[in-house]
Protein backbone atom coordinates (compact mmCIF):
# COMPACT_ATOMS: atom_id res chain seq x y z
CA UNK A 1 0.00 0.00 0.00
CA UNK A 2 2.74 2.43 0.97
CA UNK A 3 4.70 1.63 -2.21
CA UNK A 4 1.59 2.43 -4.22
CA UNK A 5 1.23 5.76 -2.40
CA UNK A 6 4.87 6.65 -3.12
CA UNK A 7 4.36 5.92 -6.83
CA UNK A 8 1.28 8.11 -6.85
CA UNK A 9 3.14 10.90 -5.07
CA UNK A 10 5.96 10.65 -7.61
CA UNK A 11 3.49 11.44 -10.38
CA UNK A 12 1.92 14.26 -8.41
CA UNK A 13 5.31 15.75 -7.60
CA UNK A 14 6.39 15.58 -11.24
CA UNK A 15 3.27 17.53 -12.14
CA UNK A 16 3.99 20.14 -9.47
CA UNK A 17 7.53 20.53 -10.78
CA UNK A 18 5.89 21.67 -14.00
CA UNK A 19 5.40 20.06 -17.41
CA UNK A 20 7.52 22.77 -19.04
CA UNK A 21 10.42 22.06 -16.69
CA UNK A 22 10.10 18.31 -17.23
CA UNK A 23 10.15 18.90 -20.99
CA UNK A 24 13.26 21.09 -20.67
CA UNK A 25 15.12 18.37 -18.79
CA UNK A 26 14.10 15.67 -21.25
CA UNK A 27 15.08 17.84 -24.21
CA UNK A 28 18.45 18.58 -22.61
CA UNK A 29 19.20 14.91 -22.00
CA UNK A 30 18.09 13.92 -25.49
CA UNK A 31 20.21 16.64 -27.10
CA UNK A 32 23.29 15.34 -25.28
CA UNK A 33 22.54 11.72 -26.10
CA UNK A 34 22.18 12.31 -29.85
CA UNK A 35 24.94 14.94 -30.02
CA UNK A 36 22.79 17.83 -31.24
CA UNK A 37 23.46 20.22 -28.39
CA UNK A 38 25.95 22.90 -29.42
CA UNK A 39 27.73 22.49 -26.08
CA UNK A 40 28.85 19.01 -27.18
CA UNK A 41 29.51 19.44 -30.89
CA UNK A 42 30.99 22.90 -31.42
CA UNK A 43 33.81 23.61 -28.99
CA UNK A 44 35.58 26.94 -29.53
CA UNK A 45 39.30 27.20 -30.09
CA UNK A 46 41.66 26.86 -27.17
CA UNK A 47 42.36 30.12 -25.35
CA UNK A 48 45.73 31.56 -24.39
CA UNK A 49 46.85 34.60 -22.38
CA UNK A 50 47.89 37.00 -21.17
CA UNK A 51 44.54 37.88 -19.64
CA UNK A 52 45.26 40.90 -17.44
CA UNK A 53 47.88 43.67 -17.60
CA UNK A 54 49.43 45.99 -15.04
CA UNK A 55 46.66 48.18 -13.56
CA UNK A 56 46.94 51.90 -14.16
CA UNK A 57 45.52 52.84 -10.76
CA UNK A 58 46.64 51.21 -7.53
CA UNK A 59 44.48 50.96 -4.39
CA UNK A 60 46.99 51.15 -1.50
CA UNK A 61 44.24 52.25 0.92
CA UNK A 62 42.38 48.95 0.48
CA UNK A 63 42.99 45.64 2.29
CA UNK A 64 43.32 42.72 -0.18
CA UNK A 65 42.17 39.22 0.69
CA UNK A 66 44.74 36.72 1.88
CA UNK A 67 42.43 33.75 1.34
CA UNK A 68 43.14 32.00 -1.96
CA UNK A 69 46.35 34.02 -2.20
CA UNK A 70 48.34 33.12 0.92
CA UNK A 71 46.47 29.83 1.37
CA UNK A 72 43.98 27.70 -0.59
CA UNK A 73 40.37 27.49 0.55
CA UNK A 74 37.42 25.19 0.05
CA UNK A 75 33.88 26.15 1.03
CA UNK A 76 35.06 28.99 3.26
CA UNK A 77 37.76 27.05 5.15
CA UNK A 78 41.51 26.76 4.73
CA UNK A 79 42.70 23.49 3.26
CA UNK A 80 46.15 21.97 3.14
CA UNK A 81 48.27 23.49 0.36
CA UNK A 82 49.31 21.28 -2.48
CA UNK A 83 52.92 20.59 -3.46
CA UNK A 84 54.54 23.89 -4.38
CA UNK A 85 52.25 25.76 -1.98
CA UNK A 86 50.55 28.77 -3.54
CA UNK A 87 53.18 29.59 -6.15
CA UNK A 88 52.15 26.78 -8.48
CA UNK A 89 48.60 26.36 -9.80
CA UNK A 90 46.47 23.55 -8.42
CA UNK A 91 45.73 20.31 -10.21
CA UNK A 92 42.44 21.37 -11.83
CA UNK A 93 41.03 17.84 -11.85
CA UNK A 94 41.92 17.03 -8.23
CA UNK A 95 39.42 17.35 -5.39
CA UNK A 96 40.20 19.74 -2.55
CA UNK A 97 38.10 17.47 -0.32
CA UNK A 98 39.32 13.95 -1.03
CA UNK A 99 42.64 14.68 -2.73
CA UNK A 100 41.67 12.30 -5.54
CA UNK A 101 41.94 13.24 -9.21
CA UNK A 102 39.30 12.57 -11.85
CA UNK A 103 40.43 9.60 -13.95
CA UNK A 104 41.03 10.49 -17.59
CA UNK A 105 40.26 14.21 -17.11
CA UNK A 106 40.34 14.91 -20.86
CA UNK A 107 37.06 13.08 -21.41
CA UNK A 108 34.20 15.16 -22.89
CA UNK A 109 32.32 16.83 -20.05
CA UNK A 110 29.03 15.04 -20.77
CA UNK A 111 30.69 11.66 -20.23
CA UNK A 112 31.71 12.51 -16.65
CA UNK A 113 29.09 11.84 -13.99
CA UNK A 114 28.11 14.19 -11.18
CA UNK A 115 28.21 11.44 -8.57
CA UNK A 116 30.52 8.84 -10.12
CA UNK A 117 33.44 10.96 -11.29
CA UNK A 118 35.92 8.90 -9.24
CA UNK A 119 36.67 11.63 -6.67
CA UNK A 120 33.69 11.37 -4.32
CA UNK A 121 32.00 14.76 -4.25
CA UNK A 122 32.72 16.50 -7.56
CA UNK A 123 32.25 19.87 -5.87
CA UNK A 124 35.70 19.34 -4.41
CA UNK A 125 37.08 19.47 -7.97
CA UNK A 126 34.96 22.44 -9.02
CA UNK A 127 35.96 24.58 -6.04
CA UNK A 128 39.35 25.72 -7.38
CA UNK A 129 37.83 26.37 -10.80
CA UNK A 130 35.28 28.81 -9.43
CA UNK A 131 38.10 31.37 -9.66
CA UNK A 132 37.82 32.89 -6.19
CA UNK A 133 41.59 33.21 -6.51
CA UNK A 134 41.15 35.52 -9.52
CA UNK A 135 39.52 38.09 -7.26
CA UNK A 136 42.17 37.63 -4.55
CA UNK A 137 45.07 38.00 -7.01
CA UNK A 138 43.48 41.07 -8.61
CA UNK A 139 43.14 42.67 -5.18
CA UNK A 140 46.76 41.84 -4.35
CA UNK A 141 47.90 43.33 -7.67
CA UNK A 142 46.11 46.55 -6.72
CA UNK A 143 46.69 46.88 -2.99
CA UNK A 144 49.61 44.72 -1.84
CA UNK A 145 51.94 46.82 0.34
CA UNK A 146 55.01 46.47 -1.90
CA UNK A 147 55.67 46.46 -5.63
CA UNK A 148 57.29 43.03 -5.64
CA UNK A 149 54.14 41.38 -4.29
CA UNK A 150 51.91 43.34 -6.69
CA UNK A 151 54.00 42.15 -9.63
CA UNK A 152 53.99 38.59 -8.31
CA UNK A 153 50.21 38.69 -7.92
CA UNK A 154 49.66 39.80 -11.52
CA UNK A 155 52.12 37.18 -12.79
CA UNK A 156 50.36 34.50 -10.77
CA UNK A 157 46.96 35.61 -12.04
CA UNK A 158 48.03 35.23 -15.67
CA UNK A 159 49.99 32.03 -15.03
CA UNK A 160 47.12 30.29 -13.27
CA UNK A 161 44.58 31.34 -15.91
CA UNK A 162 46.92 30.12 -18.65
CA UNK A 163 47.43 26.82 -16.85
CA UNK A 164 43.68 26.41 -16.28
CA UNK A 165 42.99 27.06 -19.97
CA UNK A 166 45.64 24.50 -20.94
CA UNK A 167 44.37 21.85 -18.53
CA UNK A 168 40.70 22.44 -19.40
CA UNK A 169 40.43 22.85 -23.17
CA UNK A 170 36.88 23.68 -24.29
CA UNK A 171 34.37 20.88 -23.68
CA UNK A 172 36.92 18.52 -22.11
CA UNK A 173 37.14 17.67 -18.44
CA UNK A 174 35.02 18.00 -15.30
CA UNK A 175 35.24 21.77 -15.10
CA UNK A 176 33.10 22.21 -18.22
CA UNK A 177 30.43 19.88 -16.91
CA UNK A 178 28.17 22.41 -15.24
CA UNK A 179 26.90 25.59 -16.86
CA UNK A 180 26.64 27.27 -13.48
CA UNK A 181 30.30 26.57 -12.73
CA UNK A 182 31.21 28.23 -16.03
CA UNK A 183 28.94 31.15 -15.08
CA UNK A 184 30.69 31.69 -11.76
CA UNK A 185 33.98 31.97 -13.63
CA UNK A 186 32.51 34.57 -16.00
CA UNK A 187 31.22 36.67 -13.10
CA UNK A 188 34.52 36.49 -11.23
CA UNK A 189 36.53 37.39 -14.33
CA UNK A 190 34.24 40.35 -14.95
CA UNK A 191 34.50 41.56 -11.35
CA UNK A 192 38.30 41.25 -11.52
CA UNK A 193 38.34 43.36 -14.69
CA UNK A 194 36.17 45.91 -12.91
CA UNK A 195 38.57 46.03 -9.97
CA UNK A 196 41.60 46.35 -12.24
CA UNK A 197 40.01 48.99 -14.49
CA UNK A 198 40.24 46.77 -17.57
CA UNK A 199 36.63 46.53 -18.67
CA UNK A 200 36.74 48.97 -21.61
CA UNK A 201 39.91 47.53 -23.17
CA UNK A 202 40.53 43.98 -21.90
CA UNK A 203 43.36 41.82 -23.13
CA UNK A 204 42.35 39.73 -26.19
CA UNK A 205 42.86 36.52 -24.21
CA UNK A 206 40.33 37.60 -21.60
CA UNK A 207 37.69 38.45 -24.21
CA UNK A 208 38.28 35.07 -25.86
CA UNK A 209 37.97 33.31 -22.50
CA UNK A 210 34.65 35.03 -21.80
CA UNK A 211 33.36 34.11 -25.25
CA UNK A 212 34.32 30.45 -24.79
CA UNK A 213 32.41 30.30 -21.54
CA UNK A 214 29.27 31.90 -22.95
CA UNK A 215 29.41 29.42 -25.82
CA UNK A 216 29.23 26.67 -23.21
CA UNK A 217 26.51 28.29 -21.07
CA UNK A 218 23.99 29.34 -23.70
CA UNK A 219 23.12 25.96 -25.27
CA UNK A 220 22.17 24.39 -21.93
CA UNK A 221 20.44 27.38 -20.33
CA UNK A 222 17.05 25.67 -20.72
CA UNK A 223 18.27 22.89 -18.41
CA UNK A 224 19.31 25.44 -15.79
CA UNK A 225 15.91 27.15 -16.06
CA UNK A 226 14.18 23.81 -15.46
CA UNK A 227 15.76 23.61 -12.00
CA UNK A 228 13.91 26.71 -10.75
CA UNK A 229 16.90 27.60 -8.60
CA UNK A 230 20.24 29.42 -8.56
CA UNK A 231 21.42 27.70 -11.74
CA UNK A 232 19.03 29.79 -13.81
CA UNK A 233 19.88 33.08 -12.11
CA UNK A 234 23.63 32.45 -12.29
CA UNK A 235 23.66 31.46 -15.94
CA UNK A 236 21.35 34.27 -17.00
CA UNK A 237 23.51 36.79 -15.14
CA UNK A 238 26.67 35.44 -16.80
CA UNK A 239 25.09 35.77 -20.25
CA UNK A 240 24.03 39.35 -19.48
CA UNK A 241 27.38 40.35 -18.00
CA UNK A 242 29.59 38.57 -20.54
CA UNK A 243 27.32 39.31 -23.47
CA UNK A 244 27.15 43.06 -22.79
CA UNK A 245 30.92 43.10 -22.40
CA UNK A 246 31.51 41.39 -25.74
CA UNK A 247 28.87 43.59 -27.40
CA UNK A 248 30.73 46.73 -26.32
CA UNK A 249 33.89 45.22 -27.78
CA UNK A 250 32.11 44.57 -31.09
CA UNK A 251 32.61 40.80 -30.83
CA UNK A 252 30.20 38.30 -32.38
CA UNK A 253 27.36 36.91 -30.31
CA UNK A 254 27.64 39.51 -27.58
CA UNK A 255 24.43 41.44 -28.22
CA UNK A 256 22.33 38.26 -28.55
CA UNK A 257 23.78 36.80 -25.36
CA UNK A 258 23.15 40.09 -23.54
CA UNK A 259 19.50 40.21 -24.62
CA UNK A 260 18.94 36.60 -23.67
CA UNK A 261 20.67 37.00 -20.33
CA UNK A 262 18.68 40.10 -19.40
CA UNK A 263 15.40 38.47 -20.41
CA UNK A 264 15.94 35.38 -18.30
CA UNK A 265 17.45 37.22 -15.35
CA UNK A 266 14.32 39.37 -15.22
CA UNK A 267 12.19 36.24 -15.63
CA UNK A 268 13.96 34.34 -12.85
CA UNK A 269 13.69 37.24 -10.41
CA UNK A 270 9.95 37.48 -11.07
CA UNK A 271 9.36 33.73 -10.84
CA UNK A 272 11.74 32.58 -8.11
CA UNK A 273 11.57 35.52 -5.68
CA UNK A 274 8.29 36.06 -3.88
CA UNK A 275 6.90 39.50 -3.26
CA UNK A 276 8.02 39.12 0.36
CA UNK A 277 11.60 38.28 -0.70
CA UNK A 278 11.46 34.49 -0.18
CA UNK A 279 13.56 32.53 -2.69
CA UNK A 280 12.65 29.25 -4.33
CA UNK A 281 15.41 27.25 -2.62
CA UNK A 282 14.39 27.61 1.07
CA UNK A 283 18.05 28.08 2.02
CA UNK A 284 19.96 30.93 3.63
CA UNK A 285 23.24 30.26 1.80
CA UNK A 286 21.55 29.77 -1.56
CA UNK A 287 19.69 33.01 -0.87
CA UNK A 288 23.09 34.68 -0.54
CA UNK A 289 24.11 33.14 -3.87
CA UNK A 290 21.02 34.69 -5.43
CA UNK A 291 21.65 38.08 -3.86
CA UNK A 292 25.33 38.22 -4.83
CA UNK A 293 24.38 37.27 -8.38
CA UNK A 294 21.84 40.08 -8.64
CA UNK A 295 24.31 42.51 -7.06
CA UNK A 296 27.07 41.66 -9.56
CA UNK A 297 24.65 42.02 -12.46
CA UNK A 298 23.47 45.40 -11.19
CA UNK A 299 27.00 46.69 -10.50
CA UNK A 300 28.04 45.59 -13.97
CA UNK A 301 24.98 47.22 -15.56
CA UNK A 302 25.96 50.52 -13.99
CA UNK A 303 29.59 50.16 -15.07
CA UNK A 304 28.57 49.70 -18.71
CA UNK A 305 25.79 52.29 -18.61
CA UNK A 306 23.06 49.88 -19.64
CA UNK A 307 19.41 50.75 -19.13
CA UNK A 308 18.05 49.88 -15.70
CA UNK A 309 16.41 46.59 -14.91
CA UNK A 310 12.64 46.67 -14.63
CA UNK A 311 10.83 48.06 -11.60
CA UNK A 312 9.61 44.55 -10.82
CA UNK A 313 13.16 43.21 -10.83
CA UNK A 314 14.28 45.96 -8.47
CA UNK A 315 11.32 45.40 -6.11
CA UNK A 316 12.08 41.69 -5.90
CA UNK A 317 15.78 42.36 -5.37
CA UNK A 318 14.99 44.78 -2.53
CA UNK A 319 12.62 42.27 -0.96
CA UNK A 320 15.23 39.49 -1.22
CA UNK A 321 17.75 41.82 0.43
CA UNK A 322 15.39 42.52 3.32
CA UNK A 323 14.71 38.77 3.76
CA UNK A 324 18.39 37.90 4.20
CA UNK A 325 19.03 41.03 6.23
CA UNK A 326 16.28 40.04 8.64
CA UNK A 327 17.83 36.60 9.28
CA UNK A 328 21.39 37.91 9.62
CA UNK A 329 22.71 38.70 13.08
CA UNK A 330 24.11 42.26 13.09
CA UNK A 331 26.73 41.39 15.73
CA UNK A 332 28.60 38.57 13.97
CA UNK A 333 26.88 38.24 10.60
CA UNK A 334 25.81 34.63 11.10
CA UNK A 335 22.35 33.33 10.19
CA UNK A 336 20.30 30.14 10.63
CA UNK A 337 21.77 27.14 8.84
CA UNK A 338 18.44 26.81 7.06
CA UNK A 339 18.03 24.41 4.15
CA UNK A 340 20.76 23.12 1.87
CA UNK A 341 24.21 24.64 2.46
CA UNK A 342 26.63 23.87 -0.38
CA UNK A 343 29.46 26.14 0.77
CA UNK A 344 28.99 28.77 -1.93
CA UNK A 345 29.99 32.41 -1.50
CA UNK A 346 29.91 34.13 -4.88
CA UNK A 347 31.63 37.43 -4.13
CA UNK A 348 34.45 36.93 -1.58
CA UNK A 349 36.19 40.31 -1.41
CA UNK A 350 37.14 40.22 2.27
CA UNK A 351 38.60 37.69 4.69
CA UNK A 352 35.45 37.73 6.78
CA UNK A 353 34.19 34.30 7.78
CA UNK A 354 32.17 32.32 5.27
CA UNK A 355 29.23 32.46 7.68
CA UNK A 356 29.31 36.27 7.85
CA UNK A 357 26.45 37.36 5.60
CA UNK A 358 26.83 41.09 6.29
CA UNK A 359 29.07 41.95 3.29
CA UNK A 360 26.47 40.52 0.89
CA UNK A 361 23.58 42.22 2.69
CA UNK A 362 25.46 45.53 2.76
CA UNK A 363 26.22 45.42 -0.96
CA UNK A 364 22.67 44.52 -1.94
CA UNK A 365 21.23 47.15 0.43
CA UNK A 366 23.41 49.82 -1.17
CA UNK A 367 22.52 48.77 -4.71
CA UNK A 368 18.81 48.07 -4.31
CA UNK A 369 17.75 50.26 -1.35
CA UNK A 370 20.31 53.09 -1.54
CA UNK A 371 21.14 52.57 2.13
CA UNK A 372 23.59 50.90 4.50
CA UNK A 373 22.44 47.92 6.49
CA UNK A 374 25.38 48.22 8.91
CA UNK A 375 27.26 51.29 10.11
CA UNK A 376 29.76 49.44 12.32
CA UNK A 377 31.00 46.56 10.13
CA UNK A 378 34.30 47.37 8.37
CA UNK A 379 34.18 44.21 6.23
CA UNK A 380 30.76 45.19 4.91
CA UNK A 381 31.96 48.68 3.98
CA UNK A 382 35.14 47.22 2.45
CA UNK A 383 33.07 45.46 -0.22
CA UNK A 384 31.45 48.76 -1.19
CA UNK A 385 34.86 50.42 -1.40
CA UNK A 386 36.33 47.69 -3.62
CA UNK A 387 33.43 48.12 -6.04
CA UNK A 388 33.68 51.94 -5.98
CA UNK A 389 30.31 52.39 -4.31
CA UNK A 390 30.21 55.29 -1.82
CA UNK A 391 28.48 54.23 1.42
CA UNK A 392 24.93 55.64 1.26
CA UNK A 393 24.03 58.13 3.97
CA UNK A 394 20.77 56.46 4.94
CA UNK A 395 20.85 53.62 7.48
CA UNK A 396 18.45 50.70 6.87
CA UNK A 397 18.56 48.05 9.63
CA UNK A 398 16.51 45.05 8.53
CA UNK A 399 15.73 43.17 11.77
CA UNK A 400 12.02 42.81 12.60
CA UNK A 401 9.35 40.23 13.36
CA UNK A 402 7.75 39.12 10.10
CA UNK A 403 5.71 36.48 8.30
CA UNK A 404 7.04 35.39 4.91
CA UNK A 405 3.95 33.75 3.47
CA UNK A 406 5.47 33.19 0.01
CA UNK A 407 8.24 30.99 1.41
CA UNK A 408 6.78 29.67 4.66
CA UNK A 409 8.69 31.39 7.47
CA UNK A 410 7.68 33.04 10.72
CA UNK A 411 10.32 35.26 12.34
CA UNK A 412 10.12 36.63 15.87
CA UNK A 413 12.61 39.24 17.05
CA UNK A 414 12.58 40.59 20.59
CA UNK A 415 15.51 41.95 22.53
CA UNK A 416 18.52 39.93 21.45
CA UNK A 417 16.41 36.90 20.46
CA UNK A 418 15.70 35.63 16.94
CA UNK A 419 13.30 32.71 16.49
CA UNK A 420 12.64 31.26 13.03
CA UNK A 421 9.81 28.79 12.45
CA UNK A 422 9.75 26.98 9.11
CA UNK A 423 6.27 25.94 7.96
CA UNK A 424 5.19 24.16 4.75
CA UNK A 425 4.53 26.57 1.90
CA UNK A 426 5.83 25.01 -1.28
CA UNK A 427 5.63 26.70 -4.65
CA UNK A 428 8.94 24.96 -5.39
CA UNK A 429 10.43 21.63 -4.40
CA UNK A 430 11.74 21.24 -0.85
CA UNK A 431 15.23 19.82 -0.47
CA UNK A 432 14.98 19.05 3.25
CA UNK A 433 12.38 17.45 5.51
CA UNK A 434 12.31 20.41 7.92
CA UNK A 435 8.60 21.05 8.52
CA UNK A 436 8.07 23.17 11.66
CA UNK A 437 11.81 23.31 12.31
CA UNK A 438 12.66 25.96 14.89
CA UNK A 439 15.92 27.92 14.96
CA UNK A 440 16.69 29.98 18.07
CA UNK A 441 19.39 32.63 18.49
CA UNK A 442 20.42 34.82 21.42
CA UNK A 443 22.79 37.73 20.81
CA UNK A 444 24.35 35.91 17.85
CA UNK A 445 24.63 32.50 19.52
CA UNK A 446 22.71 29.64 17.94
CA UNK A 447 20.83 27.89 20.78
CA UNK A 448 18.63 25.57 18.69
CA UNK A 449 20.43 24.46 15.54
CA UNK A 450 19.78 23.22 12.04
CA UNK A 451 22.16 20.53 10.80
CA UNK A 452 23.12 21.94 7.39
CA UNK A 453 24.19 19.64 4.56
CA UNK A 454 27.76 18.24 4.95
CA UNK A 455 28.04 16.82 1.42
CA UNK A 456 25.94 16.05 -1.62
CA UNK A 457 28.03 12.92 -2.20
CA UNK A 458 29.80 11.89 1.02
CA UNK A 459 32.32 9.03 1.06
CA UNK A 460 30.68 5.61 1.24
CA UNK A 461 33.00 4.55 4.08
CA UNK A 462 32.25 7.62 6.19
CA UNK A 463 29.88 6.03 8.69
CA UNK A 464 26.10 6.44 8.48
CA UNK A 465 24.08 7.38 5.40
CA UNK A 466 24.72 11.11 5.65
CA UNK A 467 22.67 11.74 2.50
CA UNK A 468 19.64 10.65 4.47
CA UNK A 469 20.60 12.11 7.84
CA UNK A 470 21.36 15.75 7.08
CA UNK A 471 18.32 16.54 4.87
CA UNK A 472 16.04 14.37 7.04
CA UNK A 473 13.68 15.23 9.84
CA UNK A 474 16.05 13.84 12.49
CA UNK A 475 18.50 16.65 11.71
CA UNK A 476 15.97 19.36 12.60
CA UNK A 477 14.27 20.79 15.67
CA UNK A 478 10.86 19.30 15.11
CA UNK A 479 8.85 16.08 15.64
CA UNK A 480 9.51 12.83 13.79
CA UNK A 481 6.72 10.29 13.36
CA UNK A 482 7.29 6.52 13.22
CA UNK A 483 11.01 6.74 12.33
CA UNK A 484 10.30 8.23 8.90
CA UNK A 485 10.72 11.56 7.18
CA UNK A 486 7.81 13.96 7.01
CA UNK A 487 7.69 13.57 3.23
CA UNK A 488 8.64 10.54 1.09
CA UNK A 489 12.07 10.82 -0.46
CA UNK A 490 11.85 10.55 -4.25
CA UNK A 491 15.45 11.37 -5.17
CA UNK A 492 18.74 12.74 -3.93
CA UNK A 493 17.39 16.31 -3.92
CA UNK A 494 13.64 15.71 -4.01
CA UNK A 495 10.87 15.00 -1.53
CA UNK A 496 7.26 14.33 -2.49
CA UNK A 497 3.82 14.72 -0.90
CA UNK A 498 4.31 18.38 -0.08
CA UNK A 499 1.82 19.26 2.66
CA UNK A 500 0.08 22.59 3.17
CA UNK A 501 0.26 24.56 6.38
CA UNK A 502 -2.65 24.86 8.75
CA UNK A 503 -3.53 27.45 11.41
CA UNK A 504 -0.64 29.80 10.62
CA UNK A 505 -0.70 32.71 13.06
CA UNK A 506 1.55 35.62 13.93
CA UNK A 507 3.99 36.86 14.66
CA UNK A 508 1.90 38.86 17.12
CA UNK A 509 2.91 41.21 19.92
CA UNK A 510 1.76 39.62 23.17
CA UNK A 511 3.02 42.46 25.37
CA UNK A 512 6.02 42.73 27.69
CA UNK A 513 8.36 42.09 24.79
CA UNK A 514 6.76 38.71 24.00
CA UNK A 515 5.96 37.54 20.47
CA UNK A 516 3.63 34.63 19.65
CA UNK A 517 3.33 32.60 16.46
CA UNK A 518 2.03 29.22 15.37
CA UNK A 519 1.66 26.83 12.44
CA UNK A 520 0.73 23.20 11.77
CA UNK A 521 0.37 20.54 9.08
CA UNK A 522 -1.01 17.07 8.37
CA UNK A 523 1.30 14.79 6.41
CA UNK A 524 0.62 12.28 3.63
CA UNK A 525 0.11 9.39 6.08
CA UNK A 526 -2.20 11.28 8.40
CA UNK A 527 0.20 12.37 11.17
CA UNK A 528 -0.47 15.86 12.52
CA UNK A 529 1.80 18.39 14.17
CA UNK A 530 0.76 21.83 15.43
CA UNK A 531 3.36 24.08 17.04
CA UNK A 532 2.74 27.23 19.11
CA UNK A 533 5.53 29.53 20.30
CA UNK A 534 5.82 32.30 22.84
CA UNK A 535 9.13 34.11 22.47
CA UNK A 536 10.42 36.47 25.16
CA UNK A 537 13.80 38.20 25.59
CA UNK A 538 14.92 35.54 28.09
CA UNK A 539 12.50 32.65 27.61
CA UNK A 540 10.94 30.44 24.94
CA UNK A 541 7.81 28.34 25.39
CA UNK A 542 6.87 25.79 22.73
CA UNK A 543 3.74 23.66 22.67
CA UNK A 544 3.75 20.75 20.22
CA UNK A 545 0.40 19.01 19.70
CA UNK A 546 0.82 15.72 17.81
CA UNK A 547 -1.62 13.03 16.66
CA UNK A 548 -2.30 10.55 13.88
CA UNK A 549 0.94 8.54 14.09
CA UNK A 550 1.07 4.78 14.51
CA UNK A 551 3.72 3.85 17.07
CA UNK A 552 5.76 6.77 18.31
CA UNK A 553 6.61 10.45 17.98
CA UNK A 554 10.03 11.88 18.86
CA UNK A 555 10.61 15.56 19.63
CA UNK A 556 14.21 16.68 19.10
CA UNK A 557 16.04 19.76 20.33
CA UNK A 558 19.50 20.17 18.79
CA UNK A 559 21.52 22.04 21.41
CA UNK A 560 24.75 24.03 21.32
CA UNK A 561 27.83 22.10 22.43
CA UNK A 562 28.40 22.38 26.18
CA UNK A 563 28.28 20.60 29.53
CA UNK A 564 24.63 19.60 29.51
CA UNK A 565 23.41 17.52 32.46
CA UNK A 566 20.14 16.37 33.96
CA UNK A 567 19.02 18.45 36.91
CA UNK A 568 15.96 16.26 37.52
CA UNK A 569 13.69 13.95 35.53
CA UNK A 570 12.38 16.78 33.30
CA UNK A 571 15.12 19.42 33.17
CA UNK A 572 18.46 19.76 31.38
CA UNK A 573 20.86 22.47 32.46
CA UNK A 574 23.99 24.03 31.01
CA UNK A 575 25.30 26.91 33.08
CA UNK A 576 22.45 29.37 33.70
CA UNK A 577 20.32 27.89 30.92
CA UNK A 578 17.57 25.36 31.58
CA UNK A 579 15.47 23.26 29.22
CA UNK A 580 12.36 21.51 30.55
CA UNK A 581 9.97 19.27 28.60
CA UNK A 582 6.67 17.97 29.96
CA UNK A 583 3.74 16.21 28.29
CA UNK A 584 0.01 15.53 28.70
CA UNK A 585 0.69 11.83 28.05
CA UNK A 586 3.31 9.46 29.46
CA UNK A 587 6.83 10.08 28.19
CA UNK A 588 8.40 6.78 27.19
CA UNK A 589 11.97 8.00 27.24
CA UNK A 590 14.09 11.11 27.63
CA UNK A 591 17.58 10.79 26.26
CA UNK A 592 20.54 13.01 25.47
CA UNK A 593 22.25 11.62 22.36
CA UNK A 594 24.98 12.63 19.96
CA UNK A 595 23.87 14.33 16.75
CA UNK A 596 25.75 16.08 13.96
CA UNK A 597 25.86 19.45 12.29
CA UNK A 598 27.67 20.89 9.29
CA UNK A 599 28.16 24.63 9.42
CA UNK A 600 30.70 24.48 6.57
CA UNK A 601 30.25 22.23 3.55
CA UNK A 602 32.37 19.04 3.64
CA UNK A 603 32.90 19.36 7.43
CA UNK A 604 30.77 17.91 10.24
CA UNK A 605 30.98 18.03 14.02
CA UNK A 606 29.02 16.48 16.90
CA UNK A 607 26.50 18.25 19.10
CA UNK A 608 24.10 17.17 21.88
CA UNK A 609 20.50 16.37 20.94
CA UNK A 610 17.65 15.99 23.40
CA UNK A 611 15.08 13.38 22.32
CA UNK A 612 11.65 13.05 23.96
CA UNK A 613 9.58 10.03 22.87
CA UNK A 614 5.85 9.48 23.35
CA UNK A 615 3.60 6.67 22.13
CA UNK A 616 0.18 8.32 21.88
CA UNK A 617 -1.41 11.58 20.78
CA UNK A 618 -0.80 14.46 23.15
CA UNK A 619 0.89 17.80 23.74
CA UNK A 620 4.54 18.35 24.63
CA UNK A 621 5.51 21.61 26.33
CA UNK A 622 9.08 22.90 26.22
CA UNK A 623 10.33 25.70 28.45
CA UNK A 624 13.69 27.18 27.44
CA UNK A 625 15.10 29.69 29.94
CA UNK A 626 18.19 31.65 28.88
CA UNK A 627 18.99 34.61 31.13
CA UNK A 628 20.21 37.61 29.18
Automatic annotation (TrEMBL):
Keywords: Lyase, Periplasm, Signal. It holds the Pfam family Hepar_II_III_C. One of its GO terms (molecular function) is lyase activity. The keyword Signal applies. Transmembrane segments: none annotated. It comes from Alloalcanivorax marinus. Its main location: periplasm. GO terms for cellular component: periplasmic space. Signal peptide: none annotated. This is Heparinase II/III-family protein.
